[in-house]
Amino acid sequence: MQYFQGHTDIEVSLLLSNNAEAFALKRARDHDVSTFIFSRGQFKEGISILAALQQNNITHLVLAGFLWLIPPYLLTTYRDKIINIHPALLPKHGGKGMYGIKVHEAVKLSGDTETGITIHMVDEEYDKGKVLFQASCGVEKDYSAAQIAECVHSLEHKHYPEVIERWVLGL
User: Does the annotation count 86 as an active-site position?
Assistant: First the structure.
């Protein structure tokens, strides 16, 4: 939201969340971005979700920390217009149940010497969509999962807004 504030061609105009306590909702309010909180049932049936997206003229969907599989109605309506960020270098450490600290623990347990982020298109399967961008960071043997998370988090902040911008603008 901060990156796109004042952007001439891109506006963050709606934040949707299934978690009424998500810190992102406070950030959205602080940036005068509308919010919409939904239940699992609303997400599955789709009518209220699509209505909120259409009322706000949403053209692209950017996921961040969203753990549910995207249903067919959204994939059809927003074909090639939904992206996500994953805290590992896919295809390693991806798929259902692989999120947050679980990913970093898997990186540590596997003995990987590098990890990073993958920004990808969203399709019918978890973490299987076309890769748009990857960035990596080294992993030392003595790193904890929390230290790995810090490295990955800095990559997310550095690269996700820039990749979103290029993607939305078709660059």
Answer: yes
